[in-house]
Automatic annotation (TrEMBL):
Superkingdom per UniProt: Bacteria
Enzyme class: oxidoreductase
This protein's name: Putative NADH dehydrogenase/NAD(P)H nitroreductase RI844_19260
Listed PANTHER family: MALONIC SEMIALDEHYDE REDUCTASE RUTE-RELATED
InterPro entries given in the database record: Nitroreductase, Nitroreductase-like, Nitroreductase_HadB/RutE, RutE-like
Length: 223
């Protein structure tokens, strides 16, 4: 891949971005304990939902946050289908494992998080400073597959954290038939489904005790 060459305008944009990054960290060195508890430490995955709607405007706000999360070479392969209507839920129902049917049908929204296997065709827009980037993926299906899945999954993770930051609860799940979902929602496209995540306001009466986690020394190594 050729080394990028930057115009004077691009160099100025880079300097501006660097200054903004410094200012961001200076103004917000860390989240407080309440924020950390809300988005991950004390947050719970939900199985049941209150009868409280999630607006389309909130979903658009959610995506505006998610799209800014880092992906390798700014590939941005994730594609999101927000299942909101009764008709769409019935289509998704056909793809679900039995234990997940009630969770999805009762949720205001369930997102199908997928990834575009032809993401690299958009690299002239998303990675424009390096014209050779697209060629790295063309005729390299293994690299395409791993990059799409890895970064699409990352973006799905960003969606879950961002949803909690906006006051929503989440219910991620993988108990569904991916091929059936692909046939139903992505037929004729280059998008493949990854996992589902219900969004809404969780019914705390339907959660269970928190399951254990590993301690640092059990799974982490300092070298």
């Amino acid at each position: 891949m050729n080394k990028p060459e930057f115009s004077a305008q691009q160099l100025q944009a880079i300097k501006t971005a660097q200054l903004e990054a410094d200012q961001l960290k200076a103004g917000h060195p860390t989240l407080n304990d309440n924020d950390l508890d809300l988005i991950i430490r004390e947050a719970r995955s939900h199985n049941g939902w209150l009868n409280k709607p999630v607006s389309d405007d909130l979903l658009k706000q959610l995506y505006e946050i998610v799209k800014m999360g880092s992906t390798s070479m700014n590939t941005c392969p994730a594609r999101f289908v927000f299942i909101r209507t009764d008709e769409a839920k019935q289509r998704l129902k056909k793809c679900l494992a039995p234990l997940n049917v009630d969770k999805v049908l009762s949720a205001p929204v369930t997102v199908i998080i997928g990834h575009d296997m032809e993401f690299y065709k958009h690299m002239p827009k998303l990675f424009a400073h390096n014209p050779g980037a697209q060629a790295l993926f063309e005729n390299n299906p293994n690299m395409v597959s791993s990059t799409a899945f890895r970064n699409g999954t990352l973006q799905g993770g960003y969606l879950m954290i961002a949803a909690r930051a906006l006051g929503l609860d989440i219910g991620p799940m993988s108990g569904f038939n991916n091929q059936a979902a692909d046939d139903e929602f992505f037929s004729g496209s280059s998008v493949k489904s990854n996992f589902l995540c219900s969004l809404g306001y969780g019914d705390t009466k339907k959660i269970f005790q928190r399951l254990p986690r590993f301690e640092f020394d059990e799974v982490c190594t300092l070298l």
